[in-house]
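Changelog note: in this version the structure field was regenerated for every chain. One regenerated record is shown below for reference.
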Amino acid sequence: MHAITIPEPGGPEALVWAEVPDPVPGEGEVLVDVAASAVNRADLLQRQGFYDPPAGSAPYPGLECAGTIAALGPGVSGWAVGDEVCALLAGGGYAEKAAVPAGQLLPVPSGLDLVSAAALPEVTCTVWSNVFMVSHLRPGETVLLHGGGSGIGTMAIQLAKAVGARVAVTAGGPEKLARCAELGADILIDYREQDFVEEIRKATDGAGADVILDIVGAKYLERNVRALAVNGRLAVIGLQGGVKAELNLGALLGKRGAITATSLRHRPLAEKAAIVAAVREHVWPLIADGRVRPIVDRTLPMPEAAEAHRALEASTHVGKILLVTSASA
């Protein structure tokens, strides 16, 4: 098969479409003929040499894929050759074939095409686990989503609205904010022109956000705490704004607030399987009935992964950027 390899870390040009050995499904795994994968920030870090996949995982980038089951490994039940699936991966999505633990498989939702399904696993698992399983967003609460136009953001807007929450977003510029509004965002904050702490306080009569989903990290830590409501929950899932910051514990105590920080890639298989099962139970019905949908900015042939990385780095996209193989034709 062919896959996107990284002979040497570097810029987008470091991504090389090359012939590599076919994966073989092990105990509890299935082999998927990949139709599409999606580009995530973690892939950019891996390309630069900063975020290696877990030991034993495929060395190629790609944290999710969609395709058709080609073979079952030992001990797999409940799936059959020919099933159309999407999957959460620890790596290896930028390839024509991928070996996937069966617990990380999801059926393609009813009414959705196979390529678009590749936009779902990472964002649905990230949003559901952090906003709902960890931060316990409830109907009537206010959630602040940083990066509202991202793949994570566009999914989080829809899921939060589906459960009856009030949604605030930050995004760069009126065009992205308009797209967030189309998806249901109630409070629109241009982080380039506005102070999100001030705006969220104005919009909530001084109360603040009950839940904040943050992709920025250190740069926003102090302001995120100020933007929290009493008993608020801050979930940090990205470090685009750095890794180190001072925290006034007195301010956090005054809010009776909680800060969590999580990632999916290096979790044990059992934890990933539990998140995937929760997503299938709670999110898949919302997709099947049309209340939630993947937002796809563009698709590119998988050998053009370098161009996809440039597009993600430019941050002009809204939603997900997908890479498609010849199997998607």
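Spot check on this record: The chain has eleven helices and 15 strands. The two ends are 17 Å apart (CA to CA).
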